[in-house]
Write a structure and sequence with these properties.
- The chain has helices at 11-21, 42-46, 55-62, 90-98, 101-125, 183-209, 229-234, 237-248, 254-263, 274-287, 307-314, 323-333, 340-352, 367-381, 391-399, 406-416, 433-446, 458-462; strands at 2-8, 38-40, 79-87, 128-131, 137-140, 146-153, 159-168, 171-172, 178-179, 213-215, 222-224, 357-358, 364-365, 450-451, 479-480.
- With 481 residues, it is an alpha+beta fold.
- It folds into 3 domains: 2-235 and 270-300, no CATH class; 301-382, Arc Repressor Mutant, subunit A (Orthogonal Bundle), CATH 1.10.10; 391-480, no CATH class.
- The strands form 6 sheets. It has a 5-stranded antiparallel β-sheet, sandwiched between helices. Strands 4-5 form a two-stranded antiparallel sheet. A two-stranded antiparallel ribbon has the order 8-9.
- Helix 1 runs antiparallel to helix 3 and helix 5 runs antiparallel to helix 6.
- Residues 24-35 and 467-479 have low confidence and may be disordered.
Length: 481
């Protein structure tokens, strides 16, 4: 999973990261000699930043200054940067928290490798700057400047392996100037980076610990076979607390979840040692009768997903897809994971194969979807002709809606006064298509025809249902869909 937040361009941001993140105030144990953070990204290399994150260097970077000379590298920025947080699935965190030292070290190494893969993707796809009048020209930049901080617990002191990537809002353009990033690309590619992180993590964990993964109801995320949902929830006290607060107030949106998260945030407890935490976790596991030895271990040699599986997955929700959606599909269908290089290569091979049909310069579909579309068209064109509604009946339905526009009225007349088997209404979001179809439905019902609403969403299909007072007994003569 990945989350992304903007970092405000003020002194408080630097203070937060220096005190809360870099000093492990969100980690509820002594760091046991682990460095507070490390520099990642090609942009860091360009600035001579390597190894441990020093507080003064991080403060300079978030302020847009050269970390060595203190000179300004960039001008005004609305955002100092972005906090990209990559979190392991709960079952992986339990492998780390309940396992022995050797197991824990392997889990951390796998997580770090997956974080590097996600960062490599973002540098390749989303590290851009704008130049020219109004920033109309986009250029690839020299790389991201990232301070990475790995944490291992949640706010309720449950095992939760995650890494904060404090990414500075600046990059070196091809003209030798440091300027703000084109932030839209960061947000556009963040979700795909999350899918890549999860796939590489599954691959690394499977290779190192010989465990298997099973898909979940969360896109792109798999959990370790043998660590049940019940066990995972009993080690997810913070999430349970947030969900309870949301249920109490009847909230279901992501914004509501953010409010519940802040509203239920507990006070930070006194730090305890990692050994004390591990003992508490093992005692808790014993209390719920869970033993990590129950997790099956077997060396596997999974094959990359084949073209047909990728094609069906990538068109599960949409008839066409772009490269981002394809990368997500490759990562998700690789249930046991794939290395980063193989994810990219597998996507390229799919686009070069017979299962990808180019629709536009940046979108593709599959032969299966084209066949489904052709069959739908044949059925529609060859279907029975419908009954045209008399113009006076249509005009009455239009007149009953004084606010209807001339374009909407024309659309209503077009689809109700034709006998063709198919009539199409096209309009942008908010153009009033549902309002127009409501008028058309009234005209059909007045003509003793029965309109049947069909849509991908039930709410949209129900939008043309008549009020109880205006319902008429349907006639068996004809139906219009």
């Amino acid at each position: 999973m990945i989350s992304i937040a903007r970092l405000a361009a003020n002194a408080d941001t630097a203070i937060y990261y220096l005190e809360a993140i870099a000093n492990d105030r969100d980690d509820y144990y002594v760091a046991s000699g682990e460095v507070p953070g490390r520099w990642l990204g090609s942009g860091s290399v360009l600035l001579g930043l390597d190894g441990e994150v020093a507080p003064e260097a991080l403060r300079a970077i978030l302020a847009g200054l050269d970390p060595h000379t203190g000179e300004a590298l960039v001008g005004y920025r609305k955002n100092a940067g972005f906090d990209l947080t990559l979190s392991a699935p709960k079952s992986v965190s339990l492998l780390w928290g309940l396992g022995d030292r050797a197991t824990a070290e392997q889990v951390v190494a796998a997580h770090d490798r997956a974080v590097l893969a996600a960062l490599a993707y973002l540098e390749d796809a989303a590290c851009t700057v704008r130049r020219g009048k109004g920033g109309s020209t986009h250029h690839r930049a020299g790389g991201l400047v990232v301070a990475a901080f790995r944490h291992r617990t949640s706010r309720e002191a449950d095992p939760q392996l995650h890494t904060h990537l404090a990414t500075a809002n600046m990059a070196l353009g091809p003209d030798g100037r440091w300027t703000a990033l084109h932030s839209a690309d960061i947000f556009h590619h963040a979700r795909t980076a999350g899918f890549i992180y999860q796939a590489v993590l599954r691959h690394e964990i499977s290779e190192r610990l010989s465990v298997a993964f099973e898909p979940t109801d969360k896109p792109g995320i798999g959990e370790v076979v043998g660590i049940s949902k019940s066990v995972r929830r009993k080690f997810s006290r913070r999430r349970v607390e947030i969900e309870a607060a949301m249920a109490k107030h009847g909230v279901r949106t992501s914004h509501g979840a953010q409010i519940a998260t802040l509203d239920t945030r507990p006070a930070k407890p006194a730090p305890v040692s990692e050994d004390e935490l591990r003992k508490a976790w093992r005692d808790h596991a014993a209390a719920i009768e869970f033993d990590l030895n129950q997790v099956p271990r077997q060396r596997r040699h999974p094959l990359p997903p084949h073209d047909q599986a990728i094609g069906r997955h990538v068109t599960k929700r949409d008839a066409t897809f772009d490269r981002l959606r394809l990368l997500q599909a490759v990562a998700e269908t690789a249930t046991q994971g794939l290395p980063y290089e193989q994810i990219m290569a597998r996507a390229d091979a799919f686009l070069d194969g017979h299962e990808a049909v180019k629709v536009t310069a940046t979108r593709w579909t599959t032969p299966e979807m084209l066949a489904i579309e052709a069959d739908a068209v044949d059925r529609a064109v060859g279907g029975p002709r419908t009954v045209a509604v008399h113009a006076q009946v249509v005009d009455a339905a239009i007149a009953a809606r004084p606010s209807i526009s001339s374009e909407q009225a024309d659309a209503v007349r077009s689809i109700t006064t034709t006998s063709e088997p198919v009539a199409v209404v096209v309009g942008h979001a908010g153009a009033g298509k549902t309002f127009s179809l409501n008028a058309a439905a009234e005209a059909w019902r007045s003509a003793e025809l029965r309109p049947i609403g069909l849509a991908l969403a039930g709410r949209a299909a129900a939008g043309c249902k008549p009020d109880r007072a205006s319902r008429r007994r349907p006639s068996p003569r004809s139906s219009r869909t």
